[in-house]
Amino acid sequence: MNPFFRIIEILILVVLPLLFLYLRSNWPKKVINVNVIILPLIWYVFYAPLHELGHILGCFIVGLEIKDYQLFAHFWEGNFGFAFVDIKDGYGENMNSFVILILPYVLDLISIVIGYYLLSRYKIINSFLFGLVFLLFNIRPLYDLVDNFIGYFLNHSDFVLASRIVGSLVIFTFVIISIIIGITLILLLLKRYKQYPST
Fold it and tell me: CB of 15 within 8 A of CB of 42?
């Protein structure tokens, strides 16, 4: 994806929900400013590793050997967005490959539901911790789903090969339902946490 569009995507899917959450809160503006700067940086560092760990877990589930992997982008080499998991025999059009390819997104959906439960069940008063939970459990997985769904149409996504295995209709249905659930739960959290914490 074009770097400019990637930045726009990050601003819309990561920064804006955080900003919207904090601007509707009662936390001090100084605290909000720090959180809105630091939390997206934390997201950027951990986004790829959490995604790739899903692929690694998929390899363990189906019993395929990992040939090589890179969880963190090599920032020190000027590489800011490349992580991968290679399996010994390569990815094919089979169910083992499908499990490995789709597992990060199944975990994304589970994460969104867990994040909603945590933030609905527990009142986190610390603004940074609250934002971190919201970011890692809700925003990160929604971004992962949307980014890779866009990538499908650019022929650069796990969903491309996954759709060859089970069909585009199955993949589209899963992804769209997951995105709708993610957006709905995030909107419910934003509504719930207006003027939070109460003064």
Answer: no
How does pLDDT run across 85-128, given as a tens digit for each residue?
999 888 999 999 999 999 999 999 999 999 999 999 998 999 99
Strand partners, 73: none
47 touches 73 (CB < 8 A): no
**Type and span of the H or E element at 84:** strand 84-87
Residue with tokens 């189906």: 62
Task: Return d(Cα 124, Cα 6) in angstroms, integer.
Answer: 31
Both tokens assigned to 18: 């955080």
The residue ranges of every structural domain in the chain are 3-192
First-residue to last-residue Cα distance in the chain: 44
Give the residue from 51, 49, 18 showing the smallest Cα distance to 35.
18
Residue type, 155: N
Q: Which among 180, 173, 118, 107 is positioned nearest to 140, based on CA atoms?
A: 107
Look up the pTM and report it: 0.93
Please, which residues have CB within 8 angstroms of residue 72's CB and are 6 or more apart in sequence?
A: 45, 48, 49, 83
Contact (CB, 8 A) for 72 and 139: no
Helix boundaries (H) for 82-167: 95-121, 127-134, 140-153, 158-166
Residue 162: closest CA among 111, 112, 104: 104
Token duo for residue 1: 């994806």
